[in-house]
Amino acid sequence: MESHTFREKSRIPLIGSDEAAQLLGISLRTLYSYVSRGRIGRVIDPITGKSQYNRREVEEYARKRDRGRSAGNAARASLSFGLPVLDSQICAIKAGRPWFRGQDAIALSETATLEQTAALLWNVDSLPETGIAGVVDSAGTCGERFLPRFHQWLLANMDQVYAREVLSRNQQLLHASRILRAGATIAVGNDLRDVPIHEAMARAWGGPAGAANIIRRALVLHADHELNPSSFALRCVASTMASPYASTLAGCCAASGVRHANFSAVMALIGATLQGADPAALVASGVTGGRALPGFNHPLYPKGDPRATALLDDLRAIASNRDMACIDGLLQTAHATYGLLPKNDFALAAATQLLQLPTDACERIFVVSRIVGWNAHALEQYSSPLLIRPRARYVPD
Protein backbone atom coordinates (compact mmCIF):
# COMPACT_ATOMS: atom_id res chain seq x y z
CA MET A 1 0.00 0.00 0.00
CA GLU A 2 2.88 2.35 -0.80
CA SER A 3 0.58 4.41 -3.00
CA HIS A 4 -3.16 5.05 -2.93
CA THR A 5 -5.21 6.28 -5.86
CA PHE A 6 -6.86 9.57 -4.91
CA ARG A 7 -9.66 10.38 -7.32
CA GLU A 8 -10.60 13.94 -8.19
CA LYS A 9 -7.31 15.18 -6.84
CA SER A 10 -8.30 18.85 -6.72
CA ARG A 11 -11.03 18.09 -4.20
CA ILE A 12 -8.80 16.15 -1.84
CA PRO A 13 -6.75 18.13 0.70
CA LEU A 14 -3.21 16.84 0.18
CA ILE A 15 -0.47 17.60 2.67
CA GLY A 16 3.27 17.10 2.78
CA SER A 17 5.26 14.75 4.97
CA ASP A 18 6.03 17.35 7.66
CA GLU A 19 2.38 18.27 8.15
CA ALA A 20 1.25 14.61 8.14
CA ALA A 21 3.86 13.77 10.78
CA GLN A 22 2.76 16.75 12.88
CA LEU A 23 -0.90 15.72 12.74
CA LEU A 24 0.05 12.23 13.86
CA GLY A 25 2.53 13.44 16.48
CA ILE A 26 5.29 11.24 15.08
CA SER A 27 8.68 11.60 13.41
CA LEU A 28 9.20 11.45 9.66
CA ARG A 29 10.92 8.08 10.06
CA THR A 30 7.85 6.68 11.83
CA LEU A 31 5.60 8.17 9.15
CA TYR A 32 7.52 6.35 6.44
CA SER A 33 7.21 3.11 8.40
CA TYR A 34 3.44 3.66 8.56
CA VAL A 35 3.43 3.91 4.76
CA SER A 36 5.54 0.79 4.28
CA ARG A 37 3.23 -1.17 6.61
CA GLY A 38 0.11 -0.03 4.77
CA ARG A 39 -1.30 2.05 7.61
CA ILE A 40 -1.25 5.32 5.69
CA GLY A 41 -1.46 5.81 1.92
CA ARG A 42 0.48 8.32 -0.11
CA VAL A 43 0.86 9.59 -3.66
CA ILE A 44 4.01 10.84 -5.35
CA ASP A 45 3.76 14.32 -6.79
CA PRO A 46 4.53 14.09 -10.52
CA ILE A 47 6.32 17.46 -10.52
CA THR A 48 8.44 17.35 -7.38
CA GLY A 49 8.62 13.61 -6.80
CA LYS A 50 7.75 14.20 -3.14
CA SER A 51 5.26 12.28 -1.02
CA GLN A 52 1.77 13.70 -0.52
CA TYR A 53 -0.88 12.44 1.90
CA ASN A 54 -4.67 12.66 2.07
CA ARG A 55 -5.31 14.90 5.08
CA ARG A 56 -8.66 13.23 5.82
CA GLU A 57 -7.11 9.77 5.82
CA VAL A 58 -4.33 10.94 8.15
CA GLU A 59 -6.80 12.57 10.56
CA GLU A 60 -9.06 9.51 10.56
CA TYR A 61 -6.11 7.21 11.26
CA ALA A 62 -5.05 9.47 14.15
CA ARG A 63 -8.56 9.34 15.64
CA LYS A 64 -8.75 5.56 15.42
CA ARG A 65 -5.26 5.16 16.85
CA ASP A 66 -5.85 7.56 19.74
CA ARG A 67 -9.09 5.84 20.77
CA GLY A 68 -7.10 2.76 21.60
CA ARG A 69 -4.27 4.50 23.39
CA SER A 70 -3.55 4.48 27.08
CA ALA A 71 -4.26 7.61 29.09
CA GLY A 72 -0.58 8.53 29.07
CA ASN A 73 -0.22 8.28 25.32
CA ALA A 74 -3.46 10.18 24.79
CA ALA A 75 -2.11 12.97 26.99
CA ARG A 76 1.03 13.12 24.87
CA ALA A 77 -1.03 13.30 21.68
CA SER A 78 -3.11 16.14 23.11
CA LEU A 79 -0.05 18.40 23.01
CA SER A 80 -0.29 18.76 19.21
CA PHE A 81 -3.82 19.67 18.03
CA GLY A 82 -5.19 16.81 20.10
CA LEU A 83 -7.79 16.48 22.83
CA PRO A 84 -8.69 19.56 24.93
CA VAL A 85 -6.54 19.86 28.06
CA LEU A 86 -8.35 22.60 30.01
CA ASP A 87 -11.74 24.30 30.24
CA SER A 88 -12.24 27.82 28.90
CA GLN A 89 -15.16 30.14 28.22
CA ILE A 90 -13.16 32.45 25.94
CA CYS A 91 -12.98 30.89 22.50
CA ALA A 92 -14.29 27.75 20.83
CA ILE A 93 -13.62 26.36 17.38
CA LYS A 94 -16.69 24.49 16.21
CA ALA A 95 -18.52 23.94 12.94
CA GLY A 96 -15.42 25.18 11.16
CA ARG A 97 -15.54 28.66 12.74
CA PRO A 98 -14.08 30.48 15.78
CA TRP A 99 -16.53 31.66 18.45
CA PHE A 100 -15.83 34.34 21.06
CA ARG A 101 -17.84 33.72 24.24
CA GLY A 102 -20.61 32.14 22.19
CA GLN A 103 -20.58 34.74 19.41
CA ASP A 104 -19.56 33.88 15.86
CA ALA A 105 -16.22 35.69 15.52
CA ILE A 106 -16.57 36.02 11.75
CA ALA A 107 -19.94 37.75 12.09
CA LEU A 108 -18.65 39.83 15.02
CA SER A 109 -15.75 41.07 12.91
CA GLU A 110 -18.11 42.63 10.38
CA THR A 111 -18.79 45.60 12.68
CA ALA A 112 -16.95 45.32 16.03
CA THR A 113 -13.79 47.17 17.02
CA LEU A 114 -10.89 45.58 18.86
CA GLU A 115 -11.85 47.52 21.99
CA GLN A 116 -15.38 46.09 21.86
CA THR A 117 -13.95 42.62 21.31
CA ALA A 118 -11.68 43.08 24.34
CA ALA A 119 -14.69 44.00 26.48
CA LEU A 120 -16.44 40.84 25.26
CA LEU A 121 -13.50 38.50 25.86
CA TRP A 122 -12.64 40.11 29.20
CA ASN A 123 -16.31 39.83 30.20
CA VAL A 124 -16.82 43.53 31.04
CA ASP A 125 -19.18 46.22 29.77
CA SER A 126 -16.34 48.55 28.75
CA LEU A 127 -12.58 48.84 29.14
CA PRO A 128 -11.28 50.77 32.15
CA GLU A 129 -9.65 54.14 31.52
CA THR A 130 -5.90 54.04 31.92
CA GLY A 131 -3.00 56.43 31.53
CA ILE A 132 -0.03 55.45 29.38
CA ALA A 133 2.18 58.53 29.65
CA GLY A 134 5.74 57.89 28.50
CA VAL A 135 4.92 54.61 26.81
CA VAL A 136 6.87 55.27 23.63
CA ASP A 137 9.81 56.84 25.51
CA SER A 138 10.13 53.83 27.79
CA ALA A 139 10.38 51.53 24.77
CA GLY A 140 12.62 53.68 22.62
CA THR A 141 16.03 52.02 22.90
CA CYS A 142 15.45 48.98 20.68
CA GLY A 143 15.42 50.71 17.30
CA GLU A 144 12.29 50.75 15.19
CA ARG A 145 11.25 47.10 15.37
CA PHE A 146 7.92 46.77 17.10
CA LEU A 147 8.21 43.49 18.99
CA PRO A 148 11.54 44.19 20.76
CA ARG A 149 10.24 47.63 21.78
CA PHE A 150 7.07 46.13 23.19
CA HIS A 151 9.10 43.46 25.01
CA GLN A 152 11.22 46.19 26.56
CA TRP A 153 8.14 48.14 27.62
CA LEU A 154 6.71 45.06 29.35
CA LEU A 155 9.99 44.50 31.18
CA ALA A 156 10.27 48.16 32.15
CA ASN A 157 6.73 48.19 33.54
CA MET A 158 6.80 44.99 35.56
CA ASP A 159 7.33 47.04 38.71
CA GLN A 160 3.76 48.28 38.27
CA VAL A 161 2.93 45.11 40.22
CA TYR A 162 4.87 44.28 43.36
CA ALA A 163 6.57 40.90 43.42
CA ARG A 164 4.13 38.13 44.35
CA GLU A 165 1.30 40.61 44.80
CA VAL A 166 -2.13 39.03 44.26
CA LEU A 167 -4.24 41.47 42.26
CA SER A 168 -7.99 41.95 42.48
CA ARG A 169 -9.97 41.42 39.29
CA ASN A 170 -10.41 45.19 38.88
CA GLN A 171 -6.65 45.65 39.17
CA GLN A 172 -6.07 42.86 36.65
CA LEU A 173 -8.45 44.56 34.20
CA LEU A 174 -6.74 47.91 34.66
CA HIS A 175 -3.32 46.43 33.87
CA ALA A 176 -4.70 44.45 30.91
CA SER A 177 -6.19 47.63 29.45
CA ARG A 178 -2.93 49.47 30.02
CA ILE A 179 -0.98 46.75 28.22
CA LEU A 180 -3.35 46.88 25.24
CA ARG A 181 -3.10 50.66 24.92
CA ALA A 182 0.67 50.51 25.27
CA GLY A 183 1.06 47.82 22.62
CA ALA A 184 -1.11 49.79 20.21
CA THR A 185 0.74 53.04 20.91
CA ILE A 186 4.12 51.41 20.25
CA ALA A 187 2.78 49.75 17.09
CA VAL A 188 1.46 53.06 15.74
CA GLY A 189 4.48 55.09 16.85
CA ASN A 190 2.56 57.93 18.48
CA ASP A 191 -0.29 58.69 20.84
CA LEU A 192 -3.63 57.10 19.94
CA ARG A 193 -5.44 60.42 20.58
CA ASP A 194 -8.59 58.72 21.86
CA VAL A 195 -9.47 57.13 18.52
CA PRO A 196 -10.09 53.40 18.00
CA ILE A 197 -6.93 51.41 17.48
CA HIS A 198 -7.71 50.53 13.86
CA GLU A 199 -8.22 54.19 12.97
CA ALA A 200 -4.93 55.15 14.62
CA MET A 201 -3.14 52.46 12.62
CA ALA A 202 -4.74 53.55 9.34
CA ARG A 203 -3.85 57.20 9.96
CA ALA A 204 -0.25 56.36 10.81
CA TRP A 205 0.30 53.89 7.97
CA GLY A 206 -1.79 55.34 5.15
CA GLY A 207 -3.19 53.02 2.51
CA PRO A 208 -6.19 53.27 0.19
CA ALA A 209 -9.75 54.11 1.19
CA GLY A 210 -11.14 51.13 3.05
CA ALA A 211 -7.82 50.19 4.64
CA ALA A 212 -9.03 51.16 8.12
CA ASN A 213 -11.97 48.76 7.85
CA ILE A 214 -9.77 45.83 6.84
CA ILE A 215 -7.33 46.62 9.66
CA ARG A 216 -10.29 46.73 12.06
CA ARG A 217 -11.57 43.37 10.88
CA ALA A 218 -8.12 41.79 11.03
CA LEU A 219 -7.69 43.00 14.61
CA VAL A 220 -10.99 41.44 15.67
CA LEU A 221 -10.44 38.15 13.82
CA HIS A 222 -7.03 37.61 15.44
CA ALA A 223 -8.02 38.59 18.99
CA ASP A 224 -7.99 34.97 20.15
CA HIS A 225 -7.78 31.45 18.79
CA GLU A 226 -8.43 29.01 21.59
CA LEU A 227 -5.41 27.32 23.21
CA ASN A 228 -2.68 28.12 20.69
CA PRO A 229 1.00 27.85 21.75
CA SER A 230 1.32 31.48 22.88
CA SER A 231 -1.92 31.37 24.89
CA PHE A 232 -0.90 28.09 26.51
CA ALA A 233 2.54 29.50 27.39
CA LEU A 234 0.84 32.55 28.87
CA ARG A 235 -1.58 30.44 30.91
CA CYS A 236 1.28 28.42 32.35
CA VAL A 237 2.91 31.66 33.52
CA ALA A 238 -0.36 33.18 34.74
CA SER A 239 -1.13 30.02 36.73
CA THR A 240 1.85 30.90 38.95
CA MET A 241 0.11 34.27 39.60
CA ALA A 242 2.84 36.15 37.75
CA SER A 243 1.84 39.68 36.76
CA PRO A 244 -0.12 40.52 33.58
CA TYR A 245 3.11 42.07 32.23
CA ALA A 246 5.09 38.86 32.75
CA SER A 247 2.25 36.74 31.37
CA THR A 248 1.87 38.91 28.26
CA LEU A 249 5.63 38.77 27.71
CA ALA A 250 5.43 34.96 27.74
CA GLY A 251 2.78 35.09 25.04
CA CYS A 252 4.87 37.52 22.99
CA CYS A 253 7.95 35.33 23.23
CA ALA A 254 6.03 32.27 22.04
CA ALA A 255 4.52 34.26 19.17
CA SER A 256 7.99 35.32 18.00
CA GLY A 257 8.79 31.77 16.87
CA VAL A 258 8.49 30.93 13.17
CA ARG A 259 6.17 28.01 13.89
CA HIS A 260 3.58 30.31 15.43
CA ALA A 261 2.90 32.78 12.62
CA ASN A 262 5.67 32.86 10.02
CA PHE A 263 4.76 36.13 8.33
CA SER A 264 8.18 36.59 6.73
CA ALA A 265 7.85 33.40 4.67
CA VAL A 266 4.29 34.25 3.60
CA MET A 267 5.28 37.83 2.74
CA ALA A 268 8.05 36.48 0.50
CA LEU A 269 5.64 34.12 -1.24
CA ILE A 270 3.09 36.87 -1.86
CA GLY A 271 5.80 39.31 -2.93
CA ALA A 272 7.02 36.89 -5.59
CA THR A 273 3.44 36.36 -6.72
CA LEU A 274 2.82 40.08 -7.15
CA GLN A 275 6.07 40.41 -9.10
CA GLY A 276 4.71 37.99 -11.70
CA ALA A 277 6.35 34.70 -10.72
CA ASP A 278 4.70 31.57 -12.07
CA PRO A 279 2.24 30.35 -9.39
CA ALA A 280 2.75 26.68 -10.28
CA ALA A 281 6.51 27.03 -9.80
CA LEU A 282 6.05 28.92 -6.53
CA VAL A 283 3.72 26.29 -5.11
CA ALA A 284 5.90 23.39 -6.26
CA SER A 285 8.98 25.04 -4.76
CA GLY A 286 7.15 25.72 -1.50
CA VAL A 287 6.24 22.08 -0.92
CA THR A 288 9.64 20.68 -1.91
CA GLY A 289 10.82 18.04 0.52
CA GLY A 290 7.38 17.54 2.01
CA ARG A 291 7.33 21.03 3.53
CA ALA A 292 4.08 22.85 4.19
CA LEU A 293 3.44 25.82 1.89
CA PRO A 294 3.67 28.95 4.08
CA GLY A 295 0.26 30.38 4.90
CA PHE A 296 -1.81 27.35 3.90
CA ASN A 297 -3.82 24.53 5.52
CA HIS A 298 -4.71 25.17 9.15
CA PRO A 299 -5.15 21.82 10.96
CA LEU A 300 -8.30 23.06 12.74
CA TYR A 301 -10.00 24.10 9.50
CA PRO A 302 -9.88 21.22 6.99
CA LYS A 303 -12.50 22.99 4.84
CA GLY A 304 -10.67 26.32 4.93
CA ASP A 305 -9.89 29.04 7.47
CA PRO A 306 -12.92 31.38 7.59
CA ARG A 307 -10.75 34.22 8.90
CA ALA A 308 -8.75 34.11 5.67
CA THR A 309 -11.91 33.95 3.58
CA ALA A 310 -13.38 37.02 5.31
CA LEU A 311 -10.25 39.15 4.87
CA LEU A 312 -9.61 38.08 1.28
CA ASP A 313 -13.22 38.82 0.33
CA ASP A 314 -12.88 42.32 1.79
CA LEU A 315 -9.58 42.84 -0.03
CA ARG A 316 -11.22 42.03 -3.36
CA ALA A 317 -13.46 45.06 -2.91
CA ILE A 318 -10.59 47.58 -2.70
CA ALA A 319 -7.40 46.00 -4.11
CA SER A 320 -6.37 46.53 -7.72
CA ASN A 321 -7.72 43.99 -10.19
CA ARG A 322 -4.20 43.09 -11.27
CA ASP A 323 -2.91 42.42 -7.73
CA MET A 324 -5.98 40.46 -6.71
CA ALA A 325 -5.76 38.39 -9.89
CA CYS A 326 -2.19 37.44 -8.92
CA ILE A 327 -3.30 36.41 -5.43
CA ASP A 328 -6.27 34.44 -6.74
CA GLY A 329 -4.06 32.73 -9.31
CA LEU A 330 -1.79 31.48 -6.55
CA LEU A 331 -4.75 30.33 -4.44
CA GLN A 332 -6.34 28.47 -7.35
CA THR A 333 -3.08 26.76 -8.27
CA ALA A 334 -2.38 25.68 -4.68
CA HIS A 335 -5.86 24.22 -4.34
CA ALA A 336 -6.09 22.58 -7.75
CA THR A 337 -2.63 21.00 -7.50
CA TYR A 338 -2.34 20.06 -3.83
CA GLY A 339 -5.73 20.70 -2.23
CA LEU A 340 -4.29 23.58 -0.19
CA LEU A 341 -6.43 26.33 1.33
CA PRO A 342 -5.21 29.69 2.71
CA LYS A 343 -5.16 30.39 6.42
CA ASN A 344 -5.18 33.57 8.46
CA ASP A 345 -1.52 34.53 8.14
CA PHE A 346 -1.72 34.37 4.35
CA ALA A 347 -4.68 36.77 4.33
CA LEU A 348 -3.02 39.14 6.81
CA ALA A 349 0.21 39.19 4.81
CA ALA A 350 -1.78 39.76 1.62
CA ALA A 351 -3.56 42.71 3.24
CA THR A 352 -0.22 44.17 4.32
CA GLN A 353 1.12 44.11 0.78
CA LEU A 354 -2.03 45.02 -1.15
CA LEU A 355 -2.79 47.95 1.17
CA GLN A 356 0.88 49.05 1.03
CA LEU A 357 1.24 49.04 4.81
CA PRO A 358 4.64 48.90 6.58
CA THR A 359 6.37 45.58 5.91
CA ASP A 360 5.95 44.45 9.52
CA ALA A 361 2.34 45.66 9.81
CA CYS A 362 1.05 42.08 9.86
CA GLU A 363 3.18 41.36 12.94
CA ARG A 364 2.04 44.58 14.62
CA ILE A 365 -1.62 43.90 13.87
CA PHE A 366 -1.35 40.29 15.03
CA VAL A 367 0.39 41.03 18.32
CA VAL A 368 -1.78 44.04 19.25
CA SER A 369 -4.85 41.97 18.44
CA ARG A 370 -3.65 38.94 20.37
CA ILE A 371 -2.89 41.07 23.45
CA VAL A 372 -6.66 40.97 23.90
CA GLY A 373 -6.82 37.18 23.84
CA TRP A 374 -3.70 36.73 25.93
CA ASN A 375 -5.09 38.89 28.69
CA ALA A 376 -8.46 37.17 28.46
CA HIS A 377 -6.63 33.91 29.14
CA ALA A 378 -4.63 35.52 31.95
CA LEU A 379 -7.81 36.84 33.60
CA GLU A 380 -9.46 33.44 33.33
CA GLN A 381 -6.38 31.64 34.65
CA TYR A 382 -6.03 34.01 37.61
CA SER A 383 -9.49 32.90 38.76
CA SER A 384 -8.39 29.25 38.90
CA PRO A 385 -6.69 27.82 42.00
CA LEU A 386 -4.82 25.29 39.89
CA LEU A 387 -1.16 25.47 38.90
CA ILE A 388 -0.58 24.20 35.36
CA ARG A 389 2.02 21.53 35.87
CA PRO A 390 2.04 18.72 33.27
CA ARG A 391 4.19 15.64 33.72
CA ALA A 392 6.95 14.43 31.41
CA ARG A 393 7.54 10.82 30.43
CA TYR A 394 11.20 9.92 30.84
CA VAL A 395 12.48 8.15 27.72
CA PRO A 396 16.09 6.92 28.01
CA ASP A 397 18.35 6.91 24.97
UniProtKB/TrEMBL annotation:
GO terms for molecular function: acyltransferase activity, acyl groups converted into alkyl on transfer. Residues 17-65 form the Helix-turn-helix domain. It comes from the Bacteria. InterPro entries: Citrate_synth-like_lrg_a-sub (IPR016142), Citrate_synthase (IPR002020), Citrate_synthase_sf (IPR036969), DNA-bd_dom_put_sf (IPR009061), HTH_17 (IPR041657). GO terms for cellular component: cytosol. It holds the Pfam family HTH_17. Belongs to the citrate synthase family. This is Helix-turn-helix domain-containing protein. It comes from Bordetella genomosp. 4. The lineage of its organism: Bacteria, Pseudomonadati, Pseudomonadota, Betaproteobacteria, Burkholderiales.
